[in-house]
Records
---
Amino acid sequence: MLTACLAFAAVAALVTITPGLDTMLVLRTTLTSGRRVGYLAALGIAAGCFAWAVAGALGLTALLAASELAFNAVRIAGAGYLFWLGAQALWQTRRRRTAEAAEELPSISGMGALRTGFVTNLLNPKVGVFYMSLLPQFVPDGATMLGTSLIFALIHVAEGLVWCALLVLAAAAARRTLARPSVKRRFQQITGLAFIGFGLRLATDH
């Protein structure tokens, strides 16, 4: 069992540190709202991943993968949510373009960051398919699928929290350097376009 856990941890670590939506979300949240809110965004991401892992262990993601209608419904909802996040970020920077309003971009609340991290993962069916396809490959003979899958999920979530914590610390340090409103506004524009790009990819990737 220990060998299986170590093998899964190695593969999951590579997946965790691959730049993607979660990385962009944590960096953007920390730069605009501070370290504490960045940690809450990371916690929301971890909660969303664990929810998919539990669903996979219970066999629910197999039903999702088998039903094209259900998969597409979750996929389109997730893409729509990402479009909304991107458009919101771009609209905030547009409203703050004038010199009088350029003092600071609006901060994200702690609950808002937690909710965004959770929902962006929960509405991404590819996370569920990832758990469904990867976890069973590491379950050793004789081990229960449910219990072992949950252990693997906890390993992945723990790795994700550690990685996100490092991202938060790096972004918090950069935040002191990049404190100028114009720089924050530019980063907000970049992340807004990135969210829209991720949404397009999710909407068109079957």
---
Amino acid sequence: MDLWYNEFHTKNVKLSIKVDQQLYSGQSEFQRIDVFHSPEFGRFLTLDGFMMLTEKDEFIYHEMIVHVPMAVNPAIKKVLVIGAGDGGVIRELTRYETIEHIDMVEIDEEVVDVCVKYLPQTACAFDDPRVHLHYQDGLKFVRKFENEYDLIVVDSTDPFGPGEGLFTKEFYGNCFKALNEAGIMVNQHESPFYQNDAIAMQRAHKRIIESFPIAKVYQAHIPTYPSGHWLFGFASKSFHPLKDLDGAAWDALGLKTKYYNPALHRGSFALPNYVEDLLTDVE
């Protein structure tokens, strides 16, 4: 008998992946956590039935959410990561020797425990001495700080359930306050393709531009996310993601990546017309 993981992207569109093994299933205080193995995508994590990452394509998401801000401001030393229980963002950040301190705030400790056990490809750097884990609500955590961080990475789930508070105007305003005068915030920005996802994307963009003087959107292709067309947000008090990019300096670091490079960095901010129109409608 064939076993398949199915996820509806709309009521008319479904992602279906053949599964040969379910490695874990459990209910935490906040959500259902499942880990499967697929012949095509390797191990993959779902939360409340929604795809979070697969071993085959996670590098795209994690490289694009980390290396874009790091190539714009290589002087980043203190970072706040909100969400990111799978460990992929932490893995990429700890590759930078110049980073001195990383606070990671994850509401669900069980997600981290499961990923450490079943997804060591991403959850491989939590023991770095620069990483400090805080198991609490990211919305409440960030309220406590002012002029503290060089970079905030918001690696949230979708804007419902445990991740809902990380898409509010209050949250983005608190991130602005917690950043220093040169601070950058990057966030997963949903997909522009299907209507419900596009509405969530527009709502997030509208709230970010109300808080930050510089707010741009960039894109990547992630096969297992709805439509495969995924957006990220870059918001800053002073750095521009293209004018301040120093591709030569980033190349000189010698970091080996599978997706990101400075030329792709520049190109990722060139958005299709339909996406530009969606953004313009709320600006």
